[in-house]
Amino acid sequence: MKNFFQSVLKHIDKLDGAKLREQYRLVTEEVKFFEMVFNAMNEGAVLYDLTGEVVYRNPSAEKFGEIEVPLGKASKFEVLLTYPEEYILEVQTIPFERGTLAMIRDVSAERERTAQELERGATKSVCDLAAGIAHEIGNPLNAISLNLQILERDPSDKEAIDICKTQVKRLDGIIRGFLSALRPQRPNLSPGSVAEPLKNCLAAFKSQFEDRKIAVTLDVPSAVPPVALDKDKIEQVFFNLIKNALEALPDAGTIDVEIVSDDKDVVVSFRDSGYGMSSEQLAHLFEPYRTTKEHGTGLGLMISARIVRDHGGAISVESKEGEGTLFTVRLPRLERRVRVLK
After folding, report:
1. Quick count: other Cβ atoms within 10 Å of Cβ 307?
2. 186-245 per-position pLDDT tens digit
């Protein structure tokens, strides 16, 4: 079709009225064909122009209503809809020079199947679970090892001792969590701030940041609205995201961490200056057993996404090769503010 348009544009000055009408008919038929293809798709497709106006929406996207997407950026995130029916939607955005295409997929049944597979306790699931345990335990063990090295140089370093104690406790929690992963349990929610588990994670990685000359900025407002959270599980999410950022960074890179809030949510973002990801890598993010790491399992982000969903929140990612990656975790405020419309 591209070659057809190029040919018409090249010779349009030489076409008479009859030929122009014929070319217009052919173009109309091509447009109808592609519209028929998009209308027959099970996946939702929404095309936005550069200003964010919807140019086209296929029938599969109609039932999901309006979904806010980042314009002009490659991203992938999940959305939980509760009305009129409950859906878990996977949204992937693809930018191009005249706008942004959003592909929307209902993954509710897929997520349910994943949970059922874990519950069956089949041999393969147990083996994969063991690999996941090794993946998760590696984070606190690494932090303990590094802080023990600090203690060898200065046995009186109380901060290093406290970090080791915290990570030992976290190890116990991870093991308990994975032993019950075949029967996933809802988080034990209580009012609290995301700032505390976030600062715990950053403290555990402090020596790694220093050794690799990673510049870390932390922007936390003086008052962070409370959310309902399971601190251990949210700390596990933050640990995974910081570790992923470190693995995607060259030495002397940067990680910017920020907490902001709006009328509905508290938002924690992790932006790194690393290598970024391709659209293909973004398409398979959060899928179990899909990883770009040599010794990875692909379970870390899948588990993190499930934890965030169990908190009633959402996790999303934006990335571009060579330009770094931005992970965002949104958790609903304990008391949502009502905005008065004037």
Report:
1. 23
2. 789 999 999 999 999 999 999 999 999 999 999 999 999 999 999 999 999 999 999 999
Does pTM surpass 0.90?
no
**Helix segments in the chain, DSSP class H:** 2-11, 17-40, 59-62, 108-120, 123-153, 158-179, 195-204, 206-211, 231-247, 279-283, 299-310
DSSP for residue 267: E
Packed helices 231-247 and 195-204: angle between N→C axes, nearest 10 degrees:
40
Classify 319 as helix, strand or coil.
strand
104, 58 contact by CB (below 8 A):
no
How far apart CA 102 and CA 122 sit, in angstroms, is: 36
How many C-alpha atoms does 47 have within 13 Å on its Cβ side?
12
pLDDT tens track for 249-281: 999 999 999 999 999 999 999 999 999 988 888
Sign of CA dihedral 132, 269, 99, 95: negative
Decide if 1 contacts 32 (C-beta within 8 A).
Answer: no
The DSSP letter of residue 98 is T
